[in-house]
Amino acid sequence: MKCINVKLLLLCLILLCTQYLTAQMSYQQKYQLVHSYLLQKDYEKAIPILQEVYDAAPDYWFDYYYEALIGTKKFSEADKLMNKQIKRTPYRSDLYVYWGYLYYLQNNEKKAQQYYEKAIQKLPNDINTIKLTANQFIKYQMIDNAMKVYEKGQKITDYPFYYEKAELFQQLKDYKSLMNVYLDILYSNPGELQNVQNQLQTLLAHNPNDTTQINQPILKQEIIKRLQKYPDNTIYTDLLIFLLVQQGDYEQAFTQIKSYDKRVSDEGLKMLQFCQTCAKNQKYDVAEKCYEEMIKKGKSNPFYESARLGYLQNKYLAIIQKPNVSKETVINLEKQIYQYIKENQNSGIIYPLIIHLADIESKYLGQFSRADSLLSAFIEKQQIKPDMKASLKLKLADVYILQNRLWEAILLCMQVEKEFKYEEIGQEAQYKRAKISFYSGEFKLAKSQADILKGATSKLIANDAMQLSVLISNALFNDSTGLPLKYFAKSELLIFQNKLDSAILVLDSINQKFTNHSLEDDIFYQKAKIYELKQDWKMAEQMYLNIINFYPQEMYADDAVYELAKLYQYQLNDKQKAMEYYLKLLNDYPGSLFVPDARKSYRILRGDEIN
User: For the residues of 420-447, what is the DSSP string, one character each?
Assistant: First the structure.
């Protein structure tokens, strides 16, 4: 008996000591201790300290004190706390949500509902308190009550709570109401267009495959209703064009642009921007029609010359992307570019067109002497800038490679390399020289030149040089004769010369003739690039998948993942798979050269705002 009394006495002494020590603690020490208890959810130890600190700073400690009391089911004490807090801050309607939830935890649904209704009834004319009240309902998963708060809050304050309601409609999966909230935002504030587009793009990115709500007709129908109701409000035309582009319907977007252009006097600026968007997204046919509309506006239009230049560049891009373009189309473009150069021969804007024209003459018309004469004439001009002259020389080197005049191509590269030794264009010339050595079968020379470029300032050139060096090392290690590599080098030269079918035959012959070589993944990658040039997207996809599945640790693995992601994004119109492979590159190949571009593309597809 005496033993029990002694133990009791010791326990009391410990408790008294603890209370005394707590009482002697500073506010800062109590603050740190109570947060430690709350983090561990040790509410029993936290409550005595909370009772003290709450009186010192009630607004800060109220939530923590409330959480600790309901966490220990001290409902009567929590009820007293609610009374105390509401007397202190009677304007805080959100406190009635806390109080209602307290009764909900005690299975008193009727009483809980009364307090929820009181929270809505007592909303003050204060935007922040209204948001607090709605957020408290959201915290307890009472979305309908939160919506009532915003609706009544709008009547009280005249503040629309657009984005807050949009978030609730998204949680409720009420997409029609969600879309109309966004349309209301634009009606009241057209300057929010970019933000609204970002929000809609997020919906597009996060919903699964073909059931994406933005791809359903709801938004398009609602925009058209608004256009009919407010025909002079151009903001809805802007949004409809954005939506059609997101859905890949550039033809309908073009129709809307033409309609907009007739109603709005912006000199065709929006149409020119749409032309550029189409070209950027490789919708060359629509871009061409769009540029033609701009050109019809005549020479007095301030964007006339920009449209003509854009039209010619777009036509060139369309030709090099098509495997079987007619000779008539190529000749027609050739004449138009010659005419433009003749009219603007003293302007610096023509030099990119000169390079395009040299490509057309040499690669597509076989007129090597014309390409040579064209480039040589401008290279000899005294007033031309040195860097542009260097670009023309490198293009002339390409013309020589097409004719197998490899030594003359090397001489041009050496001239550029000497003049721009420490600049990127000089490194480009040096890499081109290494490739020519590779085409010629001079593998040791090609490797030594590539090794020098591993430290190039251009990451792309450095990466290409490293790949060339590794390719040669691996191939010669497996077969010192270098015969499989000679076939592979020949296939690369044929691809450069646009002899794609011959290149495939040479690549196929490597596996037929040689059993011991290290070029399997290189062959798949080379074939993928050929099939892309031939616009055989499914075969290109299969080649990239072969590398990813069978050679995930080899040199071209990250290239294959990145190229496949782009293939899904731009050619196969499968944004979900594009995102999947961009993400795979970020996760599996964090050191890849393509990580920055992949991250940016992934974020754009996901709907993030990119500055």
Answer: TTTSHHHHHHHHHHHHHHHHTT-HHHHH
Percent of the chain past pLDDT 70, that is, above it, reads 92
Cβ contact 537:569 at 8 Å: no
The whole-number pLDDT of residue 580 equals 95
- Cβ-based burial of 232 (10 A; exposed 0-12, middle 13-18, buried ≥19): exposed
Give the alpha-carbon dihedral of 308, 315, 367, 505, to 10 degrees.
160
Pull the structure tokens for residue 456.
Answer: 């190039």
pLDDT at 210: 40
Distance of alpha carbon 359 from alpha carbon 93, whole angstroms: 73
User: Which amino acid type is present at position 55?
Assistant: D
Q: Is 439 left (phi over 0), alpha (psi -120 to 50) or beta?
A: alpha
> Quick one: which of 449, 406, 403 has its CA closest to 428?
449
Query: Quick one: tokens of 187?
Result: 């009606």
CA distance 53 to 37: 14
- The C-alpha atoms of residue 220 and residue 24 are separated, in whole angstroms, by 68
pTM: 0.71
Are 556 and 522 within 8 A, CB to CB?
yes
SS (H, E, C) 460-528: HHHHHHHHHHHHHHHHHHHCCCCHHHHHHHHHHHHHHCCCHHHHHHHHHHHHHHCCCCCCHHHHHHHHH
**How many other CB atoms are found less than 10 A from the CB of residue 53?**
19
Nearest CA to 307 among 332, 289, 328?
289
Distance spanning both ends of the chain, measured CA to CA: 78
* Nearest alpha carbon to residue 140 among 192, 101, 94: 101
DSSP-derived letter for residue 266 is S
Low-confidence ranges of the chain (pLDDT < 70): 1-27, 203-216, 323, 607-611
For residues 137 and 96, the answer to whether their CB atoms sit within 8 Å is no
Q: Are 600 and 585 in contact (CB under 8 A)?
A: no
21 CB neighbour count, 10 Å cutoff: 9
Residue 270 tokens, joined:
């929006």
CB burial of 163-198 (b: ≥16 within 10 Å; e: otherwise) equals ebbbbbbbeeeebeebbbbbbebbeeeeebeeebbe
- Rounded Cα distance between 51 and 162, Å, is 40
Considering only CA atoms, give the Rg of the chain: 35
Question: Helix, strand, or coil here: 283?
Answer: coil
Q: For the segment 369-410, what is each residue's pLDDT rounded down to a tens digit?
A: 999 999 999 999 878 889 999 999 999 999 999 999 999 999
What's the rounded Cα separation, in Å, for the pair 363 and 227? 49
User: Rounded distance, CA 107 to CA 129, Å?
Assistant: 27
Report which residue type is found at 91: Y
Q: Residue 609: what pLDDT?
A: 52
Asked if residue 184 lies in contact with residue 154, where contact means CB atoms within 8 angstroms, the answer is no
In degrees, to the nearest 5, what angle opens at C-alpha 303 toward C-alphas 300 and 307?
Answer: 115
DSSP assignment of 558-579 equals HHHHHHHHHIIIIIS--HHHHH
- Segment 261-316, tens digit of pLDDT: 888 878 999 999 999 999 988 899 999 999 999 999 999 999 999 999 999 999 99
